[in-house]
TrEMBL record, chains A, B:
Full protein name: Helix-turn-helix transcriptional regulator
Source organism: Paenibacillus oenotherae
Domain HTH hxlR-type: start-end pairs: 10-111
InterPro entries in UniProt: HTH_HxlR (IPR002577), WH-like_DNA-bd_sf (IPR036388), WH_DNA-bd_sf (IPR036390)
UniProt keyword annotation of Membrane present: no
SUPFAM superfamilies assigned to the protein according to its UniProt record, in alphabetical order: Winged helix' DNA-binding domain
Membrane-spanning parts: none
Keywords: DNA-binding, Transcription, Transcription regulation
Signal peptide: none
DNA sequence: CTGCATCCCGAATGATACTG
DNA sequence: CAGTATCATTCGGGATGCAG
């Protein structure tokens, strides 16, 4: 397989991952659902003080569309909606963990450089 | 450690990773440098037909700022500049590979759903 | 050959008010 | 409580022309 094609295919995979969890709040939402299980809309909202209702709804809709989370609505008054990771969403766990780990090493690396300069 | 704090820290790491490789062309640039080693500016440009000069320069500058790649300029006429992964940049390899792998599984997963529906 | 500066656009994000 | 609608804003991405 020519290099260009292989590179392009590799990037497709990475791009797909980025498309799915690249939103500004998606990583945090996924992380919360991964570690704390099912959450109601209001609970998520309270745990994400800087996210507006509209944005939260938006991000949740996209995650649902991409089959990473499951939305369960109860037809009650008052309304009640619960979100949880799907089985497919749980397969993101290792990637999420890896990125988290690398990110921390990166932050430390940058700080070590900074302090070394000054 | 309270849940909110742990979540926030976890997200910091993920966010740092996203900041660093989240640009539209960065994953591909990193992948090429990872697999093919040092490249001249013009070579990269030819391998990324859809990226404008300006964007390529931009992305390379950011990657350099984040210490993922090394820029070596030769003071010649005509100018010659080579880019290569730094040691730190190479530590991204496993993350890149993981994301690539998950992305592909995701693409297949979505296609299996689509074909199942129709 | 390589890179910078400038302008421009559309998408993503965010604030606010309203509804079942 | 959960969600929609609308409008403002910010920002990444892209085109073009110039420069060392």
């Amino acid at each position: 397989m020519p290099e260009e094609v292989r590179d392009e295919k590799a990037t497709q995979g990475i791009q797909a991952t980025l498309d799915v969890m690249g939103g500004k709040w998606k990583p945090l939402i996924l992380f919360i659902l991964l570690h704390e299980g099912t959450k109601r809309f209001g609970e998520l909202r309270r745990q994400l003080p800087n996210v507006t209702q509209g944005m939260l709804t938006n991000q949740l809709r996209e995650l649902e569309r991409d089959k990473l989370i499951v939305r369960q609505a109860y037809q009650e008054i008052p309304p009640k909606v619960e979100y949880s990771l799907s089985d497919h969403g749980r397969t993101l766990s290792s990637v999420l963990t890896d990125m988290c780990g690398w990110g921390y090493k990166h932050i430390e690396f940058m700080q070590s450089i900074k302090s070394g300069k000054e």
